[in-house]
TrEMBL record:
It comes from Rhodobacter viridis. Residues 23-273 form the EAL domain. The chain holds residues 553 to 827 of 830 of the full protein. This is PAS domain S-box-containing protein/diguanylate cyclase (GGDEF)-like protein. It comes from the Bacteria.
Length: 275
């Protein structure tokens, strides 16, 4: 039996034959899918709490598998990381996201998730510069979201990379704040523009005083440090009201919209502008 909950243990346990076979199958499917570019970017709006307008859209990768349907990025991204495929896939994501943003109103930014593997790859800054140059997107319209696992090791190299990306004019967000081994030291040490509060805290708003207290503390800290705070996973009006009270600056979640295909972004923006 595999105690799978913790994620870390998984890799050290022997995999059963059938699991191994499944994994191999998924690996070869993924390789084929990448060769055929069977991927698509969806976009989810992020709302500015003051204006109640869309300020940014987050790009979220989808794999349309012929038999399995839409495979979750939570499943295939770790696999792509292990296979070394995440670097070319990640470059494709960056390039597609920049191209999509060029079709939107100029005041909207695009946020792209970066894998720790990409951040450790020496070609990252060049790939980003190339995407911006090829599409003509202004650097200040691109945001990079990174999780804290990135910062656990190779602090100096990571810091140098982030400083370099900042120098290009990009914004950098810490993703899933509070979900893992969060360290306030990371907020001090790395040049973040934004903190994305993990949806576990948003979920508690309205019935958990602890969640409200944590959200209030994080948003207050962001304000003092000159950073934007974005609440993830906002699903109800009650949560939105609580976020407003606690001083959160941005909100994202199903309450506004699920992630939508690129072709539906224009209609989505219309709907949210009139909301
Ligand atoms: P994430 O960056 O934390 O993205 C937010 C996830 O929460 C997305 O799942 C989104 O669809 C979901 N979500 C948004 N609003 C709500 C809500 O109100 N309620 C609930 N329950 N969920 C909500 P998704 O698209 O399945 O992505 C999962 C994760 O996969 C992402 O988490 C991110 O870590 C990773 N990922 C997605 N696209 C990429 C990519 O292009 N590159 C890399 N490296 N990772 C990606
Ligand atoms: Ca994200
Ligand atoms: Ca997140
Ligand atoms: Ca996440």
């Amino acid at each position: 039996a595999k105690a799978d909950g913790s994620g870390c243990l998984r890799f050290f346990e022997p995999e059963s034959d059938s699991r191994m076979r499944q994994r191999r199958a998924l690996e070869s499917d993924l390789r084929r899918a990448w060769a055929a570019r069977d991927f698509e970017l969806f976009f989810q709006p992020i709302i500015d709490m003051k204006t109640r307008r869309v300020s940014c859209l987050e790009a979220l990768l989808r794999w349309n598998h012929p038999d399995r349907g839409s495979v979750s990025p939570e499943t295939f991204i770790p696999l792509a990381e292990e296979m070394g495929l995440i670097v070319p896939i990640g470059e494709w994501v960056l390039s597609e996201a920049c191209a999509a943003a060029m079709t939107w109103p100029e005041n909207l930014r695009v946020a792209v998730n970066l894998s720790p593997v990409q951040l450790a790859h020496i070609g990252l800054a060049e790939a980003i510069t190339a995407s911006l140059a090829r599409t003509g997107l202004a650097a200040d319209r691109l945001e990079l979201e990174i999780t804290e696992t990135v910062m656990m090791k190779e602090t100096r190299a990571t810091l140098a990379t982030l400083e370099r990306l900042k120098a290009l004019g990009l914004r950098i967000a810490m993703d899933d704040f509070g979900a893992g081994y969060s360290s306030l030291r990371n907020l001090q040490r790395f040049p973040f523009d934004k903190v994305k509060i993990d949806r576990a805290f948003t979920a508690g708003l309205g019935h958990s005083r602890q969640s409200a207290a944590i959200v209030r503390a994080v948003t207050g800290m962001c304000l003092s440090l000159g950073m934007v705070s974005t609440a993830e996973g906002v699903e109800t009006e009650a949560q939105l009201d609580a976020l407003d009270r606690e001083g959160c600056t941005e909100a994202q979640g199903y309450l506004f919209s699920k992630p939508v295909p690129a072709k539906d972004v224009a209609a989505l923006l219309d709907r949210l502008a009139c909301a």
